[in-house]
Write a structure and sequence with these properties.
- The protein has one domain.
- Helices cover about 70% and strands about 0% of the residues.
- It has 11 helices and no strands.
- It is globular and about 50 Å long.
- The relative contact order is 0.13.
- The C terminus is likely disordered.
Length: about 260
């Protein structure tokens, strides 16, 4: 029997793609050219979770003579590294499609950088939802649950797509501005990713109760919404209409 998590995963993908894709279309000035970017990031989460992150943990553990899967019995610095490895791997990986010439040619302004990056981040989130469904289906205790038991999965994954979209936009906007802004964008994306992962890490280490963990996601939602709106306003390209403010390029001073 096929695990019913895949039914909820299909529903989640449909809702996420429609909602965030619709927002992308609306906020970008009804441009369809960003839609194909929603495909590019789909396999990147599986690459990160099945290959890059486990290998990084194993290599560091072997170098320091620490068993990678000791859990809370591992040294504190190694636990910290296991928390850090997720943003260190995922944030640069989400921007990797910029190496493709057709993608890079789209990033010509702060506005195009914002929307191209948002699409790439949402794409990564969609792929992550598929990977997580696959991981859940391999756990016997969860595989037998009915599809409607995974509403928590659906809500978390829909929000996570937005999270990845905003964080990728922070990084790619810095890349588009070049120079020191590349480092600023990377550090900001890494820091925000750590902040967003903090509740899960604290709960995993038994540092906060389940009740606090369940409500702790409201703070990241508010923070990301504020950051996204500020980026959207900063990237807004001037519109030539009757309601826009007049821009004076030069002014002749009349002297008497």
């Amino acid at each position: 029997m096929t695990p019913q998590i895949y039914i909820m995963a299909g529903i989640t993908l449909g809702i996420s793609a429609a909602f965030w894709g619709g927002m992308l279309y609306s906020f970008s000035g009804k441009q369809k050219r960003y839609f194909w970017l929603l495909i590019l990031g789909l396999p990147l989460s599986a690459i990160a979770n099945l290959l890059l992150k486990p290998q990084a943990v194993i290599l560091v553990g072997q170098a320091a003579h620490v068993q990678p899967y000791l859990g809370l019995a591992a040294p504190v610095w190694f636990l910290a590294f296991k928390v850090l490895v997720t943003p260190l791997v995922e944030e640069p990986l989400k921007a990797l499609p910029l190496l493709l010439r057709p993608v890079w040619k789209m990033v010509t302004s702060r506005a195009s950088a914002l929307w191209a990056a948002f699409a790439l981040g949402v794409s990564f989130g969609l792929g992550e939802a598929v990977y997580l469904a696959y991981a859940i289906a391999r756990i016997p205790d969860y595989a037998a649950l009915p599809w409607f038991a995974y509403t928590g999965y659906m809500g978390e994954r829909i929000f996570t797509c937005f999270m990845h979209g905003v964080l990728t936009a922070v990084l790619v906007t810095g890349i588009q501005r070049r120079g020191r802004y590349i480092l600023y964008g990377l550090l900001a994306a890494l820091g925000l990713h750590l902040l967003l992962n903090a509740p899960a890490a604290l709960y995993q280490f038994n540092l906060i109760p389940l009740e606090l963990y369940n409500i702790s996601f409201m703070v990241p939602i508010i923070i990301l919404a504020v950051i996204f709106e500020r980026m959207r306003r900063a990237a807004r390209e001037p519109v030539d209409d009757l309601h826009s403010k007049e821009v004076i390029y030069w002014q002749r001073q009349i002297t008497k």
